[in-house]
Amino acid sequence: MKRPYLKPREPSGMEWWTYLSFAAVIYVATIVSLRMLYPEKHLDWSIIDETQRTFPESFQWGVATASHQIEGGNSNNWTEFETRSNIEESGDACDHWNRWQEDFQLLEELGVATYRFSLEWSRIEPEKGQWNAEALQQYSDMIDDLCRRGIRPMITLHHFSHPQWFEQREGFLDKDNIGLWVHYCEKVFERYCDRVTDWCTVNEPEVFSIMGYFMKMFPPGKRSLRSTLTVMRNVVQAHGIVYHRLKQHNPVCRIGLAKNVTLFDPLKRWNLLHWTTSAALNFVWNGAIVRALKKGTMFGKKMPLVRGSLDFIGLNYYTHVLTSPFLPQTNEVNFPKRSHETMTDFGYPMYAEGLERAVKMLETLEVPIEITENGTADQHDTLRPIHLQRHVWMVSELLQQGHDIRSYYHWSLMDNFEWAEGYSLRFGLYHVDYQTQVRTLRQSGSIYRDIINEASQD
Ligand code: BGC
């Protein structure tokens, strides 16, 4: 009888479904851990009374503007870009250069204790090495006037605009140009630091570099990842150099930069690709700069002067962006939002809760936080009142939790030239009629005035 052939057993190999189960378990565990580690907090605002808030007496209330957005009649990298791109021209803007006294009266009406504004480099040094005495004098008069009114000036040295001669040399793309900006900063600092204690070197290095060198929305309107990272690094480096130079002139002054913290959250919180995208964007937009200020290195380069170059950190907070690998190539889109969130006119959601995460991110720098910008585009002033109240309430909560926040500057005093979006977006506590240049206090403006008034009586 034939003996049945016994097939030797294969050494036990794992079946495909075993691998799949393993992968599924790892995927789920990763997502669960990420969701626990990085919760996206949302509050039930229907049970919150935003008018319940308290502030220390020392807390400073302010509003913020920037030269190119309000002055009018400028000639700089932006005006050049406006003529060759598809955006509205800034033209007369709010004609603030001629109406500044009237506008400072508005500051007084609001009752603010501090005002953040920027100096227009292209007015002060219209050609390399040529200094415009009249412009220097006018800014000096403005500072005096603010001081007379009891309003603390905070000056921004670079808020997106600079002279065309600087741009023609490739601006901050070429690190050899940093010295030109440093020289200008020293010049104006020497002139005004006897009256101005608070200085903000650069406004939003990440917005400036990404919008100008990747999104093509700001001058020079390029798309190159390499240039974007170079410019970001050079601007942060320039900040570090200026910080130390200015401190040598006057160690008493407080110097910082304004960091835009946009939070990038995964659109689908169960999708690892969405988490990966948001982590990458968070790093490029926020992490790289915070790390540079903490450790003195950025994108592999050592920048020892940048480490700890802050007496305060300015926080510009607006929103969170829900991300997936399909990223918009311009910001002329409506970003996604959570179903319960309200969209602002800018096309991104109102997310006041995010202020807490933004503050926690920046307080790792171990210096006081000044909220140098917060506000919303809202043409009809239907959203701004609640937007303002929620954010101010968040600040009060954060102060009660012990976070070191010294001030809140609303963006903005009045409607103005909103960069790539031109005049279509209105951010002002005052409405501006661009035909007549009449400014009118909005309901949100009077709410802000009441908030300030009420806080000073606490
Ligand atoms: C900028 C302002 C701008 C505001 C509103 C900030 O990122 O610093 O100049 O107007 O956002 O979009």
Compact summary:
By secondary structure, the chain is α/β, with parallel strands linked by helices. The protein is 41% helix and 16% strand. Helix 8 (178-192) runs parallel beside helix 10 and helix 13 runs parallel beside helix 14.
Topology:
Layout: H1 16-37, E1 60-64, H2 67-70, H3 77-84, H4 96-110, E2 114-118, H5 121-124, H6 133-148, E3 152-158, H7 164-168, H8 178-192, E4 198-203, H9 205-213, H10 225-249, E5 254-266, H11 272-295, E6 297-298, E7 301-302, E8 312-323, H12 354-362, E9 369-373, H13 384-400, E10 405-411, E11 430-433, E12 438-441, H14 443-457
Parallel strand pairs: 1-2, 1-10, 2-3, 3-4, 4-5, 5-8, 8-9, 9-10
Antiparallel strand pairs: 6-7, 11-12
Rounded to an integer in angstroms, the radius of gyration calculated over CA atoms is: 25 Å
Low-confidence stretches: none
Give me the secondary-structure category: alpha/beta
Oligomer: single chain
Distance between the termini: 105 Å
- Beta-strand residue fraction: 15-25%
Averaging pLDDT over every residue, what do you get? 96
Number of helices: 14
Shape: globular
Order of helices and strands: HEHHHEHHEHHEHHEHEEEHEHEEEH
Secondary structure: number of strands: 12
The ligands found in this model are: beta-D-glucopyranose
Helix content: 40-55%
The biggest beta sheet reads: 8 strands, parallel, barrel
Biggest sheet strand order reads: 1-2-3-4-5-8-9-10
